[in-house]
Amino acid sequence: MEDTSRTRLPLWLKLAFTAWILGWAPTYAVLLGPQNFLWLCNLANFLILVGLWSENRRLLSMQWLAVALVGALWAVDVGTAWLTGVHPIGGTEYMFNPDNPLTTRLLSLYHLLLPLVAGVAVARLGYDSRALAWQTLLTWVVIPVSYLVTEAERNINWVHGPFGTHQETLDPLLYLAGLMLGWPVAVYLPVHLLMRALQSRRRRG
């Protein structure tokens, strides 16, 4: 029988993340409305919670793909802007906009938390290489839904333009198709390839 004692996730991690969700989700719902939960990074909060309690390796691997690179780029953009006033990447200008409630800006620091939680979980349970296909399918559902049911000015998941802008160069549906292709290739695939390389290295070791 396989010994799972080494792979089980600690109870404190599950309880701490549950407490975070219980505080974060109602606050975001009141201040930003339910549309905001369609952001892939916001959706990741709920999926990581389910993954932690079920110890679902595939689900947690999917969300590792969703938050690892995004979280790193978010941190670089916010950190650089905080130090220099310049956004080298873009998309985090809202963090410095006083018109946005301070509470929501502080809670948005979860972009630093999610990669740590998902990373710890994947390190304990192992990476499921099927995550790339499943997370891509999830993205291909969420992006069109975001386009159809959310307000254009909110530009959720950048369905109307990259990095929080509104593009007018391409036909909206052509842009949307490019976004659906580009998100998995530019965001998920690099992390997936890194994880596969690490897995291969461990096997050789």
Which short descriptors sum up this protein?
mainly alpha; disordered N terminus; 205 residues
Can you offer a commentary on this structure?
By secondary structure, the chain is an all-alpha fold. The chain has 7 helices and no strands. α3 runs antiparallel to α5, α3 (57-84) crosses α7 (172-204) and α6 packs antiparallel against α7. The two termini are 24 Å apart. Mean pLDDT is 93; it is low at 1-5.
Short description:
By secondary structure, this protein is mainly α. The chain is 68% helix and 0% strand.
Largest sheet: none
Q: Which stretches are poorly predicted, pLDDT < 50 over at least 5 residues?
A: 1-5
Structural class comes to mainly alpha
Radius of gyration: 18 Å
Number of distinct beta strands: 0
Beta-strand content bin: under 5%
Q: Give average pLDDT, whole number.
A: 93
Helix content: 55-70%
The total number of structural domains is: 1
Give the overall shape, derived from the CA principal axes. globular
User: Secondary-structure element order, as H and E?
Assistant: HHHHHHH
Instruction: Quickly count the helices.
Output: 7
Question: What is the rounded distance between the termini?
Answer: 24 Å
